[in-house]
């Protein structure tokens, strides 16, 4: 619960509590707070047991932590009944992004991948496109308007 509180912060909280509540009332306050926390925990455990008993025997191994979306997704990815690892491993993000970039620039994905591999093997720009380059006839290759802005 308090995993992220450092020693300096803990000392600051204790000093602040002593200043606000006073040294004579602080022990009684700590007892009241711990008693309240204990009652809340007992109440939540009894509520969990009631829910488990109402759900029936098929949900006897049901954990309420599974209702957290992150825990549920992590458990499903580890389970792999749906074949999600195969889908995740079969997806190549760099290849997909290169295809999208080629489609936006209006090039064939086959010719660009072979030209980028030949330029990268010959010490080229590493697959980058130089937008300041002009064609042999001196005309600018870029459109006269920004396609993203329209």
Automatic annotation (TrEMBL):
<keyword id="KW-1133">Transmembrane helix</keyword>
<feature type="compositionally biased region" description="Low complexity">
    <location>
        <begin position="111"/>
        <end position="122"/>
    </location>
</feature>
<feature type="region of interest" description="Disordered">
    <location>
        <begin position="100"/>
        <end position="150"/>
    </location>
</feature>
<comment type="subunit">
    <text>The Tat system comprises two distinct complexes: a TatABC complex, containing multiple copies of TatA, TatB and TatC subunits, and a separate TatA complex, containing only TatA subunits. Substrates initially bind to the TatABC complex, which probably triggers association of the separate TatA complex to form the active translocon.</text>
</comment>
<feature type="compositionally biased region" description="Basic and acidic residues">
    <location>
        <begin position="130"/>
        <end position="150"/>
    </location>
</feature>
<dbReference type="InterPro" id="IPR018448">
    <property type="entry name" value="TatB"/>
</dbReference>
<comment type="function">
    <text>Part of the twin-arginine translocation (Tat) system that transports large folded proteins containing a characteristic twin-arginine motif in their signal peptide across membranes. Together with TatC, TatB is part of a receptor directly interacting with Tat signal peptides. TatB may form an oligomeric binding site that transiently accommodates folded Tat precursor proteins before their translocation.</text>
</comment>
<keyword id="KW-0813">Transport</keyword>
<keyword id="KW-1003">Cell membrane</keyword>
<keyword id="KW-0653">Protein transport</keyword>
<dbReference type="InterPro" id="IPR003369">
    <property type="entry name" value="TatA/B/E"/>
</dbReference>
<dbReference type="Pfam" id="PF02416">
    <property type="entry name" value="TatA_B_E"/>
</dbReference>
<feature type="compositionally biased region" description="Basic and acidic residues">
    <location>
        <begin position="100"/>
        <end position="110"/>
    </location>
</feature>
<keyword id="KW-0472">Membrane</keyword>
<keyword id="KW-0812">Transmembrane</keyword>
<protein>
    <recommendedName>
        <fullName>Sec-independent protein translocase protein TatB</fullName>
    </recommendedName>
</protein>
<keyword id="KW-0811">Translocation</keyword>
<comment type="similarity">
    <text>Belongs to the TatB family.</text>
</comment>
């Amino acid at each position: 619960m308090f995993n992220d509180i450092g020693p300096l912060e803990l000392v600051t909280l204790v000093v602040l509590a002593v200043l606000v509540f006073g040294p004579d009332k602080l022990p009684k306050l700590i007892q009241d707070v711990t008693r309240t926390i204990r009652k809340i925990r007992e109440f939540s455990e009894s509520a969990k047991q009631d829910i488990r008993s109402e759900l029936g025997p098929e949900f006897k191994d049901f954990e309420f932590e599974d209702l957290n979306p992150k825990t549920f997704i992590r458990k499903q990815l580890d389970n792999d009944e749906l074949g999600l690892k195969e889908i995740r491993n079969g997806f190549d993000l760099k290849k997909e992004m290169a295809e999208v970039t080629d489609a936006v620039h209006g090039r064939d994905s086959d010719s660009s991948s072979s030209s980028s591999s030949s330029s990268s093997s010959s010490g080229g720009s590493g697959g980058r496109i130089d937008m300041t380059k002009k064609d042999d006839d001196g005309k600018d290759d870029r459109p006269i308007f920004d396609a993203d802005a329209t």
